[in-house]
Amino acid sequence: MGGQRPPRGGGGGCWPPPPPPRDGLGRPLPYGSPGVERQPEGVVRTPDETLREAQRLLDAGMPFHAHEVFEDAWKSGPRAERELWRGLAQLAVGLTHGARGNRAGGARLLRRGAGALSSYGEAWPYGIRGGGLVDWAHELADRVEAGRPVDAEAEAPRLLG
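The structure corresponding to this sequence follows.
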């Protein structure tokens, strides 16, 4: 495997070791490599803060990290909104897998997220551009499945509209 693990115990090391650094698509990098800062887990944000932070990460080509923001909302938000945040998380992680070249997983997650969001019909909360997101997910799923390359930053969806 790439890179060495941090030293075990003593000598300034710690055990268990910290997680390895990750790139913008959430892939682990060798220890000692520069990576992107991980999203803190368990952050409780307002829906508007969640959408703004997720959009910032999507625009930066970091859909894996956007998925973590949506996951926090899914786990901490009202029960009635869990499907919304879960669906958005699935879109973000579907984009992640598509950009990593995982055709089957990327397409499946994009379609699953679109299906979860389709239940909102025309009643989209928080200014989310629902129908456009569902269409985007289906179109991207088709391209991912066909094996076309995906640039996460260029393909970033617009959440609000």
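Residues 82-100 form the longest helix (19 residues).
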